[in-house]
Amino acid sequence: MDRSLFPVERPAEWALFKEGEYYLWKADMVDLSKEREHVKSLEQPKRYLLNFSTTAAAVDSVLFRPIIYSFLKDFQHPELLACIGWQVTTIHTHHEMYCRLLHHHVNYENEKVFFFDLVKTFPSLSLKSNWLRNNSSSAAERVVCFASVSGIIGWSRFATVLGVEGSNRMSGLRESYDKIIRDTLLQMEISKCLYLSLEDRLDDLRAKDIIQSAIDNEKKFARDALSDFYQAVGYTELDSYIQWCGDRVLRDLGYNCDPVMPSSFQWMLDILPKRVPQALPNYCPLIGFELIILIFFEKFARWEKEIVKHLRDKLRLSERRAAARTRMQRLFERRAAAGTRMQRLAEHRALISTPRTTMTI
User: Fold this and answer.
1) Last residue of a domain, which of 260, 285, 310?
2) For position 188, what pLDDT does the model report?
3) Which of 39, 122, 314, 361 is the most buried (most CB within 10 A)?
């Protein structure tokens, strides 16, 4: 990075960072006190499906964390680095949230050991690690991989967890996924900006090959791990939904593709306007001299408030000092009056004690 942040040269990326900064949250903010009782009310297959999907999402966030760290070397523009820093923060927050959900949903320690050690016991998850290792030789491939993580693997988890019957009663689960879905949508926009900022992009064949590999791995994982959910919604429908996620990533990255959402998953599109807040209202990114003027006037307004506060405090202090001087003056006056009374009393006593002389005629 060979320049300062201001003046902003990439207003679109800077606007995405400010929006993400506005929506920053912590896993401690989500109330999970009633989650365990709600999970107990679910049937065993649904409870297992919920916990397995949550654990897989936590594992995914660990496996794909190195992609984000590599972006710090691939990109040098300060606006893009700000977006990447926000992504690092949200990935850690999502991982903590998934672990907290699992901790509250699982009652027995042996089950916790099984779920937390899932990456070693379930072979389908290791396929993603191999896929990432084979498709991360360039910055363009790494950006496409991360876009696939956000747009394919993440949305497959959302559909599985939110599709479990009875999950709508879990306020903590719904609130956490509200925030995670919002962050994931923003991550997809940032991935698009990162990819379009590259000069050496992938050709259509290479990009489609990487994304199709991610789609095939996710379908295999879903068939192996989410068989109950597969049977409930239908194998063809869930495969079509995962394919739609991949086609949407291709379209967002600028490739020619027309994604088709299966009818049984139309509810995923219906919840987005309700669950995802709009961007910051009336936000118009300025560049160059206008931005500098705006920043100056914002700082001047803060300085003005501080000056007014300082003068007000100083006035109050002077008023308190004047009141204290008035009280001291009254005290001196009372003491002076008391001294005068004491002097008169002493004169009167002296007059009384003086012996009287008799007169002779």
Assistant:
1) 285
2) 87
3) 39
